[in-house]
């Protein structure tokens, strides 16, 4: 299917982002082939699926993820902020998400890190993905170039992707420097010339975060291979599966 739908942090328009509830709701839609999630490390080295460096916005906890043990993080409520129906939803471990997604969804796993913020994050993620036999179903992405370089040094078989939202610079050149085959880019940064150039070079492009049908159609008109990352996969379905 062209212009594939990527569920951003799961079906985060309807369920609390980066939770098992959001993953299940994405899996329930047969046209969702990909999902984007965010991964960080707890103080005791467990990869967990959460976007913000702080616990404050999406849980009833406070403080930095990196300063908390996994047992503390897993006891937090990560669902009530989205609605009473999701009360008691937890911050999942990456292991839990991999087990749920295996054979159902391909994953864009964003490593949320900068510099030496999370020593061992890349190895921990690689080990889990390999343990679940999902290396070919995963792309590991990051804003942080050093994280992408570490991944290639640890296991060059992994596909890597650069996340890019700058208004300037040359993303195509940066991808080549980092040996990346995937570009995650803000949808309003994309233009037809760049999309065509990247396609010619064999780079897979994912545009984020696209929640309006008009923008989805504009991107689809730009190039058929652009992956559309959205909080609202239901809108993607209404837009591209019209009878």
UniProtKB/TrEMBL annotation:
Gene Ontology terms describing biological process: lipid metabolic process
GO MF: phosphoric diester hydrolase activity
GP-PDE domain boundaries: 3-240
InterPro entries named in the record: GP_PDE_dom, PLC-like_Pdiesterase_TIM-brl
Database matches in PANTHER family: GLYCEROPHOSPHODIESTER PHOSPHODIESTERASE, GLYCEROPHOSPHORYL DIESTER PHOSPHODIESTERASE
Protein name: Glycerophosphodiester phosphodiesterase
